[in-house]
Structure formats: structure tokens, C-alpha cells
Design goal:
single chain, mainly alpha
């Protein structure tokens, strides 16, 4: 049964102790009641940070990084044919900057060959 959007409706659920403790800690940190903390988090879950297309790209790049490191991300970026050359260059420069900032000792940045 649907409710009036402004009506406050009781909702009961069970969660594991570790989640409950984290929710309590977050509510205390944000100085709000537990119910308000839970409602705010539920509301946020319906509003993704990234549009779906961008989220898919981030998942693809994350998987490439996990499997092959920074060079795999760069190769994956260059394989994307649906982005403009300008966007590809911005991605390349951003990745280069990120890798330079991380400065992992065993990593050598390899410029992709077009």
C-alpha cells in the first residue's frame, strides 16, 4: 500500500551487529537520531553519485587496474572508441598525474602507442 510522501512511516528490519554499531557511530558523529541516519543513508542509495554510463566506465577502469595495474587502465582508455580524442588526452594526462603522485617504486609509466 502506497503512503503519502510526507508521512513518516514506521519500518522494522534486522541488521547484523557490526552494521548496527557502524550506524550508531555515524549517527553520533553526525549528531542525529539513529532513525534519521538510516533514512538519510537509504535516501542516498537512490541517488547515485555518477550517471549509469559514467559508473560503467569507472567499473571498467577499476577492473582493468585490479587485473593489470595502471598500464592496463591506460590501454583500456585507449581502446575506448566512443570518447573524443580530447577526452582521451585528458584521461591520459589525469592518469599520468595520478601515477606520478603515487610514485610506486616498481612502476614505470609507459606511454601508450597510438
Amino acid at each position: 500500500m502506497r503512503r503519502d510522501p510526507s508521512e513518516r512511516v514506521p519500518l522494522a528490519t534486522r541488521v547484523r551487529g557490526d552494521i548496527y554499531n557502524r550506524l550508531i557511530d555515524a549517527a553520533v558523529q553526525h549528531d542525529r537520531p539513529l532513525g534519521n541516519e538510516i533514512e538519510m543513508r537509504l535516501e542516498q542509495s537512490f541517488n547515485p553519485i555518477l550517471p549509469e554510463a559514467e559508473r560503467q566506465v569507472m567499473l571498467l577502469l577499476g577492473a582493468a587496474f585490479r587485473l593489470g595495474g595502471p598500464n592496463a587502465v591506460i590501454r583500456t582508455m585507449y581502446a575506448m572508441d566512443d570518447i573524443s580524442p580530447e577526452d582521451r588526452e585528458m584521461l591520459r594526462l589525469g592518469m599520468r598525474h595520478t601515477v606520478d603522485q603515487l610514485n610506486p617504486p616498481a612502476f614505470v609509466f609507459k606511454e601508450p602507442q597510438p
